[in-house]
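Internal QA ticket QA-208
Title: Verify multi-chain structure generation after dependency bump
Assignee: T.L.

Test input:
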Amino acid sequence: MEILFPMQPIGYVQNAYTDAGQIPKGCGAQHKAEGVLQILPEYEQGLTDIEGYSHLYVIWVFDRVEGFDLLWTPPTDNRPHGVFSTRSPRRPNRLGLTVVELIKREGNGLHVRGLDMLDGTPILDIKPYLSSIPQDDLRRGWLGEAEKRANESGKA
Amino acid sequence: MEILFPMQPIGYVQNAYTDAGQIPKGCGAQHKAEGVLQILPEYEQGLTDIEGYSHLYVIWVFDRVEGFDLLWTPPTDNRPHGVFSTRSPRRPNRLGLTVVELIKREGNGLHVRGLDMLDGTPILDIKPYLSSIPQDDLRRGWLGEAEKRANESGKA
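Actual output:
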């Protein structure tokens, strides 16, 4: 039985990334790129009071990716991991999730910092970033180990 | 021009919540409910190495909600806010996002703590929870103010 949930963009990303190769990747990649989340006018009222948040979750679609792989070797490691253990773009439902810093709102445009997606990327949802797990309670799986290996070999 | 991205469940939530009224809501709601993210067998390989993470993002669908409101008065406040400033279930694309703690993996079942969705909820994606914004850098918008008001009036 195939169940499908059709999703419709609430807006689009406007930024300077026109090619995935321009986006910093891997351990310690700094996502400082600024741009605008341009929300469609019919949803503008849904942004009411969003100015009060410093950070937002953005859920979006890797719309220029086709297909997926269950195993993936990320740029941060030299061994394959399950797609759900990674942020691979080639994933079922090709959903992206990014935490951005809200700089300012201008009408239905949200000026943000921390974009790691391409210009024109469809946005499906925006939610307030409310809380965080204390760093001490966090285990970072294979990524922590890969970072440790990279540090030990002096590559980081 | 209507652009649609069809999403297909990669699995379903198994837990004890059969009615939305059973799910704790509002300021300081504790989500300690345990349950299982039952991933479809064809995606099991995508879970490889997920055991190494303490926390995961789950992206899911409020599948029993129909329609949305651009303004919403949440249980934590007595005034309306834009839907994208809240975690309202009645939102465009009705996507849910939850951070869960991974207790253990059994085959294609992930035993987790921190569920705030109903039994049978369709799961669209799972991603590692990697980092967090330092608490000191975080502003919590209208929610911070609503909490402050609740505290001052002795209700919290």
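Spot checks passed. Residues 141-152 of chain B form the longest helix (12 residues).
Status: verified.
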